[in-house]
Specification:
mainly beta
């Protein structure tokens, strides 16, 4: 009966949220749920071990949880990082370059849009590159709990510190034949030299005499980091601690120890919360529903409520089109890869190189709540539960931008002469990028709602001199929208009291 209930519950949950789900697109940045925001993985089995203290112990409890998790919603994430093609009213999960772009709105760029050249006969560059982003992570989540009864009866300290390896990938594949063309030199009309493909442009290896390589917002099929994913420290108090249940609460802070985004890559790997200090509160409770002859059933409920404060990161906003063709709607199609120039300087560069800006980011509140049924029989403990995760939409603002300094170059612009962003013409500037043109939403992770079902099987050996536990568990997380990871996780944990 229980299996049928949870199966029906999960199907209804997925169906209802799929109907109301929102599809986001044209984003260059995503902040997924972090590895230190995972109550089910940290709480299971360990809560039972912590009840096994005796007078001979110093009151310490330590656990280590090895975990692996991987996302499986590549197509949804592809639309998030892809674009909504307003010309044909379609969400697109690819990047397309072809000379046909002059007449076919399916394509995003003509070759001269990214490799600036007036040589029509050299317009060979073409490819269609499909995105399938994913994330995998693994690590060891360390947890420490220390009772402070000698100071104040019921007082305790707890510390969490996950050591995490994260690998993000855009999962791109070339499907258009990877047609290459020479990197042209406009001023000398010498159209010979190394040939580059669209992929080489996107990965930052394509350059020429007058055009710089892409240095920001590069594509990758594997960008990884290994760090401590922030440290949580809290002081708590047991308001109730009886055989039939307990109630406790704690308050603490999050100390950022991970890396900050640098905007070198689209969806770069960030361990921790991006360098934001935070405050949080935790509530934890248990009620014993049944007990007979070493058989128990407990209902456990708890949550974390965290607030992350403003900090500085580096992100790449999109921008609005277009000075020369006002009939276009507001959004560019992959505009950060447009060939661009700087007022008073010669040469051409991809727009992303200068769009990468320092921004103020305030993540705001995060709610991580769970309830579970824990069924105990002798040393065995089986747990099955549900986890709700909520994250506020980020508040993002760009620190500064110089108007009339940058713009996308006109098709006939000669990169040997100084660029002028204030002169709107095919011979100079196609789009003057002003501060009001920068699209804040493109670097803002919207509010997140995810649902997780989890299970864990553990053994607690209370009769040992130092009570010990082992356990293993699994979970599956399902987001409401396409701005979060749909992912599965496995973990193996062990711990002891002393």
């Amino acid at each position: 009966m229980n299996k049928k209930f949870f199966y029906i519950f999960f199907i209804v949950l997925i169906s209802s949220y799929s109907i109301n789900a929102q599809t986001y697109s044209d984003r260059t940045f995503l902040t997924p749920r972090k590895q230190n925001q995972n109550l089910p993985m940290m709480h299971t089995t360990w809560h039972e071990l912590q009840e096994s203290f005796n007078e001979n112990h110093v009151g310490g409890s330590l656990q280590a949880t090895a975990f692996y998790q991987k996302s499986d919603n590549q197509k949804d994430l592809a639309k998030y990082f892809g674009c909504y093609n307003y010309r044909i009213s379609e969400f697109q999960d690819f990047f397309a370059v072809s000379y046909a772009a002059f007449s076919d709105d399916t394509y995003h760029f003509a070759p001269c849009d990214i490799f600036h050249s007036p040589d029509v006969s050299g317009q060979k560059l073409a490819d269609k590159i499909i995105l399938r982003p994913s994330q995998e992570s693994m690590g060891i989540h360390l947890g420490y709990h220390q009772d402070l009864n000698k100071l104040i009866d019921g007082l305790f300290l707890k510390i969490d510190a996950p050591i995490v390896y994260i690998k993000n990938s855009l999962g791109y594949t070339s499907t258009g034949g990877s047609v290459s063309q020479s990197a042209f030199s406009w001023g000398t009309y010498s159209f010979s030299g190394p040939e580059y493909s669209v992929l080489e442009f996107l990965t930052g290896t394509a350059t020429s005499t007058n055009q710089s390589a892409l240095t920001k917002g590069k594509w990758h099929n594997g960008n990884s980091k290994t760090r401590i994913a922030d440290i949580d420290i809290a002081i708590g108090y047991n308001f109730l601690y009886e055989d039939y249940g307990y109630i406790n609460a704690s308050i603490g802070c999050t100390i950022p120890t991970g890396n900050k985004p640098k905007a070198d890559y689209i969806w770069e790997s960030v361990v921790g919360n991006g360098g934001h200090f935070g405050l949080y509160g935790n509530f934890d409770s248990s009620l014993q529903l049944y007990k007979h002859d070493r058989k128990t059933i407990d209902l456990i409920f708890g949550f974390d409520f965290k607030y992350l404060f403003k900090g500085t990161e580096k992100r790449i906003p999109g921008f609005k089109e277009s000075n020369l063709d006002p009939s276009y709607p507001n959004i560019t199609l992959w505009g950060l890869y447009d060939a661009s120039g700087e007022t008073g300087k010669t040469g051409v560069f991809p727009a992303a190189n200068v769009l990468a800006q320092k921004v103020d980011v305030e993540p705001g509140y995060i709610f991580d709540g769970m309830f579970e049924f824990a069924i105990g029989w002798k040393r065995l403990l089986c747990e099955l539960g549900y986890n709700l995760f909520l994250k506020k939409e980020e508040s993002v603002s760009i620190k500064s931008w110089n108007n009339d300094k940058y713009g996308t170059v006109g098709y006939n612009h000669n990169p040997d002469i100084n660029f002028d962003a204030t002169t709107i013409s095919l011979d100079q500037c196609y789009k003057n990028i002003q501060s009001d043109d920068l699209l804040i939403y493109s670097i803002t992770t919207p509010k997140v709602t995810t649902h997780k079902l989890f299970g864990n099987v553990g053994w607690v050996f209370n009769e040992l001199k130092n009570p010990t536990m082992i356990g293993f568990g699994a979970s599956y997380e399902y987001p409401k929208d396409n701005n979060a990871l749909r992912q599965w996780a496995l973990w193996l944990k062990g711990g002891f009291n002393f």
